[in-house]
Amino acid sequence: MFRFGLHVSIAGGLDRIFGRGEGLGVNAVQIFSHSSRSWEFDLPDDAALDAYHRSRSSSSVTRVYIHASYLINVASEDPTIAEKSKTTLRKELETADLLKADGLVLHPGSARGGDRSGAIFRASRIIREVLDSLPGLETPILLENTAGAGSMLGSRPEELGALFTEIDRPHHMGLCLDSCHLFASGFDLSTESGRDEVLSDFFQQVPSGRPSLWHLNDAMFGLGSGRDRHAGLGEGHVGTKGLAGIVRHAKSMEIPLILETPKGEGETLDRQNLRRLLDMANHPVPDALLDAR
User: Fold this and answer.
1) Which ranges of the chain have pLDDT less than 50?
2) What are the b/e assignments for 112-142, b being 16+ CB within 10 Å?
3) Over the stretch 136-186, which tens digit does the pLDDT of each residue have?
4) What is the pLDDT of residue 50?
């Protein structure tokens, strides 16, 4: 099954995400389970969970992914930030399991002190400790590659491979690849040979062998810019041809695709980008997107 979707809001309640996805004709969504800029949040209560699961049981949206808070830095040298990150990551995973999410997307963190090997050790230790503190956990952590700016971990396949090896919890870990981040960190996705080389490098380094999820975005800035600035599909430097190759590859391997393209006002840009995605995939266009261009 070709699974595709986009990031949607939880405004008004977690149960509303399914109607928002259905209104756009998608079968997968990504959300923040709470404000992405806040350390403090509560687990969903019984009423919210009941409404959520009732909506999900009758929805054509079959996949739900959660993006972890941007505040989390499991690689931090600061003991206070590290402890907050650990506590918040644990609550994110608890929430994800209550929602029966298909994955929790997590950035690997930042080596602000410049010692990347030490940062990998710190990040791996915290992730491992959080996973071990939650027996029976079903939702995997999906580590996402980064754009290569400054001291952010995870822009290179060998670095992600080292994280997976150090964490050593293969049944609880997966990979999320972001096309804009790959291009920004110097991997040329605009040609078939470049794309195949990139994917081969990541697949060989990461124990799972392939991504569990793709974030599909064009890149606002040029190859190797290190800038995490997403553009609409076909409106950036990766281009339609390069993105279409990723879409065909993901479709053939049944890897879900989630758009994180610019939103703008209303749903116009979302509809346009979803339509472009489906055209790239040579996939039937649902009624909700027939008028989008």
Assistant:
1) none
2) beeeeeebbebbbbbbbebbeeeeebebbbb
3) 999 999 999 999 888 899 999 999 999 999 999 999 999 999 999 999 999
4) 98
Q: Which pLDDT belongs to residue 3? A: 96
Distance (Å, rounded) from C-alpha 3 to C-alpha 8?
15
Q: Which two tokens stand for residue 43?
A: 């687990």
Handedness of CA 14, 16, 18, 21 (dihedral sign): negative
Q: What is the CATH number of domain 4-289?
A: 3.20.20.150
Q: Is 38 exposed, middle or buried (0-12, 13-18, 19+ CB in 10 A)?
A: exposed
Per-residue confidence (pLDDT) for residue 202, from 0 to 100: 85
Chain-centroid distance, C-alpha 43: 21
Lookup result for tokens 């470049």:
194
Three-state SS sequence of the chain? CCCEEEECCCCCCCCHHHHHHHHCCCCEEEECCCCCCCCCCCCCCHHHHHHHHHHHHCCCCCEEEEECCCCCCCCCCCHHHHHHHHHHHHHHHHHHHHCCCCEEEECCCECCCCCHHHHHHHHHHHHHHHHHCCCCCCCCEEEECCCCCCCECCCCHHHHHHHHHHHCCHHHEEEEEEHHHHHHCCCCCCCHHHHHHHHHHHHHHCCCCCCCEEEECEECCCCCCCCCCEECCCCCCCHHHHHHHHHHHHHHCCCCEEECCCCCCCCHHHHHHHHHHHHHHCCCCCHHHCCCC
Chain centre distance of CA 38: 19
Token pair listed for 179: 């096309």
**pLDDT value of residue 209:** 65
Residue 208 has what pLDDT? 67
